[in-house]
From TrEMBL:
InterPro entries assigned: P-loop_NTPase, T4SS_component
Superkingdom, taxonomy of origin: Bacteria
Organism in which the protein naturally occurs: Slackia isoflavoniconvertens
Protein name: Conjugal transfer protein TraC
Region (Disordered): 1-24
Length: 798
């Protein structure tokens, strides 16, 4: 009988357990913070209330100049003022952990060529080790969420779209890129706060396969305990220990880095600021009523004192200060375009264990205290706080206070800038957070760039590292060419399976300035136009006075002879310098004989190795063009000849859908002659259209910044790497780039080799770039003592 009862109890109890489980599941769904999510990212938060989310990028703020920071502050204040009283706004900053399986195991470079495998393994190991040092195991995101009231979702969508566009335009004014967040991403963000340690596998197809399924079923946690181990200041969501804290008070001076100091912590967290605008007339009446109450209190204090025979000349200090603050606030509201908001700030963090959670809470509270913020745990209100952290712009916890738009704008959502673009090149680590600086130059509007630094500051090592990474990362989809006046590039080229071409009297390797082998597919007039420009630059580089320009007559003679040289060669072959020289002597003008005299040493004698047909090809994946054995007069001629060969190769690479990465060391030598500068500017501008990613290296910037064309080229290039600068150049950069005092300190005499300031598009990041000793370090080093210890040129065999 007892056995029958047990069996009956088990059968009858099953529906009860099922009902209990359904009830529990329904309870967790109620915690999700929304009712309906569309694929376009519009969410119905409650009946008649709809929200949308915009993701916006970081900008350089903490290191910016004062006037730049003031402009950002004004823009953010105007952005908050834009929202009307029917709108709720939420600013969210999250530190999301990189998946655990990627930390220390990330493949930065794939294995694609046996000659590179050892370098690929070492570079992956180095970058994974560096990834653990900072907050590179966290992804930082920023979101702006806003709500609007509407009768239905169809009428809400255009209202939200207009608000979204206005917000995007406002953020664009401070160079913060923004875009709307789609529905699937909003669900992922919500899931990351509702069940932080659980995977999220969702696709809209999941819903279509099951008519009764809702997105809430994929987002909601399976279980929640708001009293784990009897605690009332934390909770458990599935396997995660969580805590919500509130920003309760501010110091007497509100610092603009108060949030940045918290967000820069290398721990998973989310900071949420809730803003609800108060109608301006209501805000003014509220403040005026407060002043009237204080006036009445002041009269009361004086009256009570008079009844005791005391003549009170002034009221209590607290009342005087409160009245002064209220009058200042009233002036802001009436005359300075300030708005009043109901404000609430929350910090959410989570961990896998209770002990780890408590440690993170202590770090957040102590860090906030250092920025004059009081952050406290929400006792007995973790559920309400948790609902307020979810990015749906609904504040469910009564911890609000009144702040003006200016006071809110002072709480900058911008922390330490990160440059971490998938598929990019490693350039160093942030000197502030140790975050890896990984830049995809191909994503920049203009991928062209420069690297400046005094001798021995690491610019050559930095760019040779980029050269090697291009080979490892892009493989056959890119070609790297180094124009090498110092003779340092051969080991890197050969290590990457490339070649080194040495132009010298005894090398037996020749480049013909007239060569057009790689541009035979271009139409003939275009080929000749390019060659005329090249020979104008070559001729100018040999001017006796160095910076003397070509006359119009000389330019006409050169163009005439270049075209005639090609015409006489016809289909039989390519002309050489001697053909050009002979044509100059045939011309009737005296100026032609002067030009021929300049070319004579390149046609006859020991310098005539440019008077040969080309016997080298730029078809290897890495090519080093060594000009080390040319004297100073010949180096510019050799560099221009090499640039012509690179231009020919660039067209062919473009046709084959390959990018051409060009590195030009001592690029300042090209800025001594007006015609050379004009040629180089044309080459630079033209290259961007044909897949050229060029980097010029220079010991100082004076040559370029002192030239209108050079300065324009710099400002039109979206990549700059500034290492230690001389005093003169430092002042020039501060003026040209509008650097702040703090940014100037990152390029002064106190920095180590490899350190500097990275400028990429609108982003600026102080970086350190120090590689540990090993195969890659040995390959890149240019220190004489280390090169000698490694056997000089024998390094390439390593």
């Amino acid at each position: 009988m007892s056995l029958l009862k047990k069996r009956r109890k088990g059968v009858e109890g099953a529906p009860e357990k099922k009902k209990e489980k359904q009830k529990r599941q329904k309870g967790t769904i109620d915690l999700c913070g929304y009712e309906l999510m569309l694929e376009n990212g519009v969410a119905q938060v409650a009946p008649g209330l709809f929200s949308q989310m915009v993701q916006f990028g970081d900008i350089t703020y903490q290191c910016a100049r004062k006037d730049t920071r003031e402009n950002i502050y004004s823009t953010m204040s105007a952005l908050y003022n834009y929202f009307n009283p029917d709108t709720s706004v939420q600013v969210t900053i999250t530190n999301e952990p990189v998946p655990a399986e990627e930390i220390g195991n990330r493949t930065f470079f794939p294995k694609s060529d046996p000659c590179l495998d050892d370098y690929v393994e070492e570079y992956n190991r180095i970058l994974n080790d560096k990834m653990r040092e900072g907050v590179s195991n966290l992804k930082r995101q920023r979101y702006l969420t806003f709500t609007t009231k509407a009768d239905d979702i169809d009428s809400a969508i255009p209202k939200l779209a207009r608000m979204r566009n206005d917000c995007t335009q406002a953020l664009a004014r401070i160079k913060s890129k923004s875009e709307p967040v789609k529905g699937a991403e909003r669900l992922r963000i919500a899931r990351g706060l509702l069940s932080p340690l659980s995977p999220f596998d969702f696709d809209w197809d999941n819903l279509s396969q099951c008519p009764t399924a809702r997105s809430l079923d994929f987002v909601a946690p399976m279980s929640v305990d708001f009293k784990p181990n009897g605690r009332n200041d934390a909770f458990r969501a599935d396997d995660a220990w969580c805590c919500v804290m509130a920003i309760r008070s501010f110091g007497s001076i509100l610092m603009d880095d108060c949030l940045a100091s918290i967000v820069d912590l290398p721990i998973p967290l989310s900071v949420s600021l809730h803003l609800r605008p108060i109608p301006q007339d209501k805000a003014i009446d509220m403040v005026q009523g407060k002043i009237d109450w204080m006036d009445m209190e002041e009269r009361g204090q004086k009256s009570r004192a008079a009844n005791k025979g005391i003549i009170l000349t002034q009221t209590s200090t607290a009342l005087r200060y409160s009245r002064a603050d209220a009058e200042e606030l009233l002036d802001f509201l009436r005359n300075k375009n300030e708005r009043l908001f109901e404000y609430a700030g929350y910090v959410f963090t989570y961990a896998a264990s209770e002990e780890e959670l408590d440690e993170q809470i202590d770090r957040i509270i102590s860090t906030a205290r250092g920025s004059a913020l009081t952050v406290e745990k929400l006792y007995y209100r973790q559920e309400e706080g948790w609902g307020s952290v979810l990015p749906f712009a609904t504040n469910k916890c009564d911890v609000t206070r009144l702040l003006t738009s200016g006071q809110i704008a002072m709480q900058m959502p911008f922390a330490s800038l990160e440059i971490n673009q998938p598929g990019g090149i490693y350039l160093g680590q942030s000197k502030i957070t140790n975050t890896l600086a990984i830049l995809d130059r191909l994503s920049l509007p203009s991928p062209m760039g420069f690297d400046f630094g005094t001798p021995g500051t690491g610019k050559s090592n930095a760019q040779k590292s980029v050269w090697l990474q291009v080979r490892m990362l892009y493989g056959d989809k890119a070609q790297g060419i180094w124009i090498d006046p110092t003779g340092e590039g051969r080991p890197v080229a050969e290590a990457g399976g490339g070649v080194s071409i040495r132009l010298a009297a005894d090398s037996g390797q020749f480049m013909n300035p007239f060569d057009t082998k790689d541009v035979e597919s271009l139409n003939e007039p275009l080929q000749k136009a390019f060659k005329v420009d090249a020979f104008l630059a070559l001729s100018a580089s040999m001017m006796a006075e160095g910076n003397q320009g070509l006359t119009q007559a000389e330019r006409s003679i050169i163009a005439r002879c270049v075209e005639e040289a090609y015409r006489r060669a016809g289909d039989e072959g390519t002309p050489v310098l001697e053909d050009f020289y002979d044509l100059l002597l045939e011309q009737p003008e005296a100026a032609a004989r002067d030009i021929a005299l300049r070319y004579e040493r390149h046609v006859k004698g020991s310098f005539s190795f440019f008077n040969r047909r080309s016997n080298v090809a730029l078809d290897a994946p890495m090519v080093n063009i060594d000009l080390h054995d040319l004297n100073s007069d010949m180096k510019v001629f050799g560099m221009l000849t090499a640039l012509e060969q690179v231009r020919n190769r660039m067209y062919q690479n473009f046709a084959e859908k390959r990018t051409t990465w060009l590195f030009i060391d001592e690029v300042q030598s090209l800025f001594k002659h007006p015609a050379v500068i004009a040629y180089f500017e044309s080459f630079w501008a033209e290259g961007r259209k044909f897949g050229l990613v060029a980097t010029g290296l220079s010991q100082n910037a004076s040559f370029m910044l002192g030239s209108d064309i050079g300065s324009t080229m710099i400002l039109n290039s979206d990549y700059l790497m500034l290492h230690k600068q001389s005093t003169v150049d430092r002042d020039l950069w501060a003026e040209t780039l509008n650097l702040s005092d703090e940014e100037v300190r990152y390029i002064d005499d106190g920095i180590k080799p490899g350190d500097g300031l990275l400028v990429a598009g609108g982003a600026r990041m102080p970086i350190a770039n120090e590689l540990p000793k090993g195969r890659i370090y040995d390959l890149l080093t240019t220190k004489p003592s280390e090169v000698n210890a490694l056997g000089g040129g024998g390094r390439s065999a390593r």
